[in-house]
């Protein structure tokens, strides 16, 4: 449990408040002004600050802002004289937990500290619960290969060792990296993902290490790089094999030393970052072909984690399907028929979990069935709206910004229009092709205001 920090410029008040708090069993620290208090916050573990608003050097409001910015978990109780009540009120608006008027009432002080402490405990507890909730439903799959993956995730989360995640597209590499972060001691720090493939060579240094204003033509303002942003957290280097060799050399140095300079900057910046890397390529092969540095490979590959392809673990398909179907059906209870499930399990899913997820999303949006038939699954697998299942995400990306009901309607309208056109607006033919009754199709055409020839 952390201490209570008293920031007040009057020595008498500091000493009295410290005594009162210690009598109540708290550990109390003191500081004579804002800058000294902020220094203490950096060094010590503090849960609650008792802050005088009227301070020399740096005003209480500014101190409060700095506390909120750098130590968001710390609760602040503001102490003000009668004349500065307005300031105390604005302090509460800025996120102070409470304010107490001078002269201090011991009882009031103790109650405020106790409540602030309770809130900060609650917050810690919430963060813990959130982590364990994510725990139970995040990575789906009870198959043996996934059991192995899960064990490795737990084990590596306990250490700070670098992890290299390999696996085909859509096998859940990024998901695994996030899980490791969430389960680790760094969970309250940032998780920063960098797509190394998307970074042009000319920008990679500034992306990773940041730059000072004016260090190159486009550098209009000072900017932090990804390494700095990930300080105290985890840096996820995605698609690591797609970095150019010069970029790999720079990466090697940063990963090795955890020190670097911003572009155009003088001082060396040191960071505390855990690195997790991922690739869908075979790095040994890339090394053999001279496209990947072996020394970087050894730096990154401390703990190898291979995500199995979905076709290697068809037993996970029912659970994944149920999970996605539930998620995309807005709470409505739906399931796959046995025949539909058999079809899903027999498919080899080259795009792995992502492809399955997109496919289920599509069915959830397009079909009205509560028990989804084998016919529906085969229908969308074979032809869908004329494209392969992997082609769907773009449209789905667009639709996913809408509410489910709106998305379903937007999709249904487009889908009907497409099929009507294909069959020359012949109701009977269209109805047969998409598997609805002509009367039903009529009703939908009316509902969506579709006109022949549109
Ligand atoms: N075991 C799983 N349980 C639940 N969802 C999963 C699982 N595996 C993957 N997903 C989901 O599938 C999608 C793809 O996963 P992710 O982005 O982690 O894959 P990836 O291996 O990084 O893919 P790529 O190589 O294409 O970048 C995500 O939406 C993710 O949440
Ligand atoms: Mg990925």
Walkthrough of the structure:
With 454 residues, the chain is an alpha/beta fold. It folds into three domains: 3-127, Rossmann fold (3-Layer(aba) Sandwich), CATH 3.40.50.2300; 140-308, P-loop containing nucleotide triphosphate hydrolases (Rossmann fold, 3-Layer(aba) Sandwich), CATH 3.40.50; 312-447, Orthogonal Bundle (Helicase, Ruva Protein, domain 3), CATH 1.10.8.60. It contains 20 helices and 16 strands. Strands 2-1-3-4-5 form a five-stranded parallel sheet, sandwiched between helices. A five-stranded parallel sheet has the order 7-10-13-6-14. A two-stranded antiparallel sheet has the order 8-9. Helix 8 runs parallel beside helix 10, helix 10 packs across helix 12 and helix 19 packs across helix 20 (438-447). The protein starts with a strand and ends in a 7-residue tail after the last helix. Adenosine-5'-triphosphate is lined by residues 139-141, 167, 169-175, 280, 353-354, 357.
**Any guess at the CATH architecture of the largest domain?**
3-Layer(aba) Sandwich
End-to-end gap:
68 Å
- Give the bound compounds: adenosine-5'-triphosphate, magnesium ion
Estimate nothing, just give the exact number of structural domains.
3
Write the CATH fold name of the largest domain.
Answer: Rossmann fold
Count the beta strands: 16
Q: For this structure, what is the CATH homologous superfamily of the largest domain?
A: P-loop containing nucleotide triphosphate hydrolases
Q: What would the principal axes of the Cα set say about the shape?
A: globular
Low-confidence stretches are 133-137, 383-393
């Amino acid at each position: 449990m952390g201490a209570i920090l008293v920031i007040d410029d009057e020595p008498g008040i500091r000493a009295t408040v410290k005594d009162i708090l210690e009598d109540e069993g708290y550990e109390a620290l003191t500081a004579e002004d804002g800058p000294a208090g902020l220094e203490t916050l950096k060094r010590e573990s503090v849960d609650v600050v008792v802050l005088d608003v009227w301070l020399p050097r740096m005003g209480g409001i500014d101190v409060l802002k700095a506390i909120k910015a750098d130590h968001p978990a710390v609760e602040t109780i503001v102490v003000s004289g009668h004349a500065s009540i307005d300031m105390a009120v604005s302090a509460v608006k800025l996120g102070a937990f409470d304010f107490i008027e001078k002269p201090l009432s011991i009882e009031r002080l103790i109650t405020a500290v106790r409540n602030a402490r309770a809130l900060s405990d609650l917050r810690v507890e919430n963060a813990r619960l959130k982590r364990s909730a994510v725990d139970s439903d995040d990575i789906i799959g009870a198959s043996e290969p996934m059991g192995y993956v899960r064990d490795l995730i737990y084990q590596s989360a306990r250490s700070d060792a670098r992890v290299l995640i390999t696996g085909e597209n859509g096998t859940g590499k990024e998901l695994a990296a996030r899980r490791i972060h969430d389960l680790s001691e760094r969970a309250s720090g940032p998780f920063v993902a960098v797509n190394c493939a998307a970074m042009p060579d000319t920008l990679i240094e500034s992306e990773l290490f940041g730059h000072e204003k004016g260090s190159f033509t486009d550098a209009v303002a000072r900017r932090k790089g990804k390494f700095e942003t990930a300080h105290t957290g985890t840096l996820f280097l995605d698609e690591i094999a797609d970095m150019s060799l010069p970029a790999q050399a720079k990466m090697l140095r940063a990963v090795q030393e955890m020190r670097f300079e911003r572009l155009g900057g003088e001082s060396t910046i040191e960071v505390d970052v855990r690195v997790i890397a991922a690739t869908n390529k075979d790095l040994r092969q890339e090394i053999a072909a001279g496209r990947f540095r072996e020394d970087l490979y050894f730096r990154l590959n401390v703990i190898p984690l291979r995500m199995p392809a979905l076709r290697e673990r068809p037993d996970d398909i029912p659970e994944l399907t149920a999970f996605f179907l539930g998620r995309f059906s807005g709470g409505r209870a739906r399931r796959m028929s046995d025949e539909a499930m058999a079809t899903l399990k027999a498919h080899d899913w080259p795009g792995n979990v992502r492809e399955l997820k997109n496919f289920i999303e599509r069915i959830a949006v397009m079909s009205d069935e509560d028990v989804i038939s084998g016919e529906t699954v085969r229908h969308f697998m074979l032809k869908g709206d004329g494209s392969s299942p992997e082609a769907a995400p773009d449209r789905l990306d667009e639709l996913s910004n809408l509410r489910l009901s709106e998305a379903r309607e937007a999709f249904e309208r487009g889908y009907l229009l497409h099929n009507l056109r294909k069959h020359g607006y012949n109701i009977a033919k269209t109805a047969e092709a998409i598997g609805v009754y002509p009367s039903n199709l009529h009703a939908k055409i009316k509902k969506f205001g579709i006109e022949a020839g549109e």
